[in-house]
Amino acid sequence: MYYQKTFDAMIATPLSLDDVITGELLWGATRSFIYSSVMLVVLIAFGVVDLPASLLIIPFSFLAGLLFACIAMCFTAITPGIDALNYPSFLFITPMFLFSGTFFPLTVLPETVQVLAVAILPLTQLVIITRSLTLSMLSPLFFYSLAWIIVVTAVFFVMAIRLMRRRLIV
After folding, report:
1. Where does 79-141 have alpha helices with state H?
2. What pTM was estimated for this model as a whole?
């Protein structure tokens, strides 16, 4: 969008820069909503989730998508060029997948890593909530994770708008 001047074209309309950035963030959240809704239908068809609690994943996925859209927009805003866009994948996304409890329970990790994962990795919070909802077993960290996601999303939302405004208005 930066090199094709897509943002510039959108701003030429009555939209403000904040509107365009907010629209991008909301589109990321909407895509998460769509993808998780389709995936949940498949999981229900195979009978691997508990109903009706798992249906709460659908509205939750919008919040989860907004969180990751905001984080991604922050990375986009601070990345110096298109060649450096691989760094967030190597330095943030891959370790997050490995240490968030996505593929195996957090309990198999050393206690220090468990504490760090619950404290700083956003995917850990999502895994805790979605597992609780799909298995209808409320995790002790469920409400902590939900509050963590709401607060961090709000912080990154504001940061994303400010950083992108600084990046695009030169």
Report:
1. 86-88, 94-99, 111-120, 122-135
2. 0.90
Contacts of residue 170, defined as CB under 8 A and 6 or more positions apart, other chains included, come to none
Residue 102's nearest CA partner among 128, 135, 120 is 128
The mean per-residue pLDDT over the stretch 101-117 comes to: 92
Query: How many other C-beta atoms lie within 10 A of the C-beta of residue 135?
Result: 14
Strand locations in 18-126 (E): none
Degrees to nearest 5, angle at CA 163 with 148 and 122: 25
Query: String of b and e for 71-91 (b: at least 16 CB within 10 Å)?
Result: bbbbbbbebeeeeeeeebeee
Taking Cα atoms as reference points, which of 74, 82, 79 lies closest to residue 21? 74
Residues 150 and 63: beta-carbon distance below 8 Å: yes
Q: Mind listing the pLDDT tens digit for each residue in 122-133?
A: 999 999 999 999
Q: What does the block give as tokens for 128?
A: 């805790």
